[in-house]
Predict the 3D structure of the following.
Amino acid sequence: MAFDYTPSLRTVKEKLALGENLLKILREFKLHHNFIEKELQMPDYSMNPEGEKFALPSQEQYANELKRVESLVDAARKEGKEIVVVMGVGFVGAVMAAIVADTVDKKTGKPSKFVIGCQRPSTRSYWKIPMLNEGRSPVKAEDPEVDPMIKRCVLEKKTLIATYNSDCLKLADCVVVDVQCDYSKQELGNMRTGVVEMGALEATMKTIAERVQAHCLTLIETTVAPGTTEFIAWPIMKKAFAARGIKTEPLLAHSFERVMPGRHYVSSIRDFWRVCSGCNEEARNRVEKFLHEVLNTKDFPLTVMDRPIESETTKIVENSFRATTLAFLDEWSIFAERNGVDLIKVINAIRMRPTHNNMIFPGPGIGGYCLPKDGGLGYWAYKHILGFEDDIFKMTTTAIDVNDTRGLHVAELTRDALRNMGKMIAGAKVLLCGASYRQDVGDTRYSGSEIVVRKLTEMGAEMQVHDPYVEHWYELEQQDVYPAPGHSWARFFRNQEDLINIRVQRELPAAIKGVAALILAVPHKQYMDLDPKKIVEWAGGPIAIIDCFGILEDEKIRAYFGLGCEVKGLGRGHIQRIKENVRKGSR
Ligand SMILES: NC(=O)c1ccc[n+]([C@@H]2O[C@H](COP(=O)([O-])OP(=O)(O)OC[C@H]3O[C@@H](n4cnc5c(N)ncnc54)[C@H](O)[C@@H]3O)[C@@H](O)[C@H]2O)c1
């Protein structure tokens, strides 16, 4: 944090501001305390999630690294390839880099692009560079296309490399920006006090503008607050170009990603509809040409907008729309629980109408990287980039708040189910099945399950976790530093310290042994047809079952009651009726 100390303080206002600054620093320091301790013992290596260590490059290595990249680029140019640098090789950038590297010239069938993935050599992220250079994917994906595509491009086609030296930007014809731009919420259930973290994007734009040649096209793929491309990134680039004596306007464009983690990761980037635009006509023409070359725009037509703010707004509205329709069902879910209605059957009946067939039950929260934050980017931009003081947002903000806190109700249901069995939540062993935010993927980012675990832990439950797709739940295991120091949802709850010891279990019978309650949080395939008899046998007796996603059919609910269990479910008000019927011995 920048702290501006001037010895000659003249006014009371200045003194007060200084006091406020100091308080801010102290608060930040407290939040980052654990992180700072770790930083002090900073290793000289970067470790991937599997625990493999990669030595960080020293300053002396930078020059040789650039020479290595330059000679590969020379060779690629001789073969007529275009040079593309992808900044940020995370979830999106690593796969986008491989898709571009896999591109062939439509006439000759020969590879037409040489791609350099560029990543800062931080202890946190450097490992992605050596892994990519070995032909190994730095992202774990359920899509079987990811690993072979990266391997093929790096080792066989030799069209993909990675580097930590950002001077590679000097060699680029096109730069694709895939760094993160997060929305950091300060309170649980109040997204209005959140802030957009522009640091990584602004730093990247500056790095690019200080290095690229005038003819290079820069394409921002990062999901940004509307207005960012034209009013933040373009001015940064123009200023740097002016300082370098470049007379032409920087060529800057925007086209957002719609990537979906899961089995169709690659095709959700390559074979999917794109929207793009440029800051000026030349940038717009160049981005259109580039996207036609690297993506399947024949089957998935490209939409070209007049201005970047329109393409940026498309992404934000698209995701806010989805977040809002999901949040909308929250109140009807409670209504159903209190009035004997099974909302799952209601939704299925509505979905028969073709116009309403994409209605989905929200489960214990929404999660994923985009839906919880994208509306926030729009909300923040209206005031802080576009300069409006009035508050026009009602639906988007409420939707995000509802989605962020929906998991808290699962904790209430678990408490009540145990109470009905004469047990207390405090000290009870509870197994949560499903840590990811979505069925049949291993992505845990902002999953509703995290809120469930944190709230129940706060209430004194002893939590255990099972998930067939997740190896490590970093949001818990590394809550001091993940997703970033001071950003864990742990800060919204008490009693969270021990959650760093949670290990995701893979064997269901062993995980269930001795639990008092089982929460079915995500409709993973493995959870869809569990046998109630086996569950009770593995647990060692009747337990409470909490269904968060309409996983249990009525027959199963009946069977659980028959075995002496208690069942509760989000939006499933008819469970009480089934219970009474089982007790009466009728259907
Ligand atoms: N992951 C998704 O499912 C998804 C879907 C659609 C859109 N998006 C959008 O794509 C963008 C990227 O998301 P992601 O999931 O790939 O994020 P990520 O955090 O996985 O990757 C970002 C990468 O950029 C790197 N980086 C940060 N600053 C840098 C710098 N100055 N120079 C070079 N590298 C730098 C980080 O170390 C990291 O590896 C976001 O705007 C996101 O909203 C993501």
About this structure: The chain has three domains: 1-31, 53-261, 406-584. The chain has a mean pLDDT of 93.
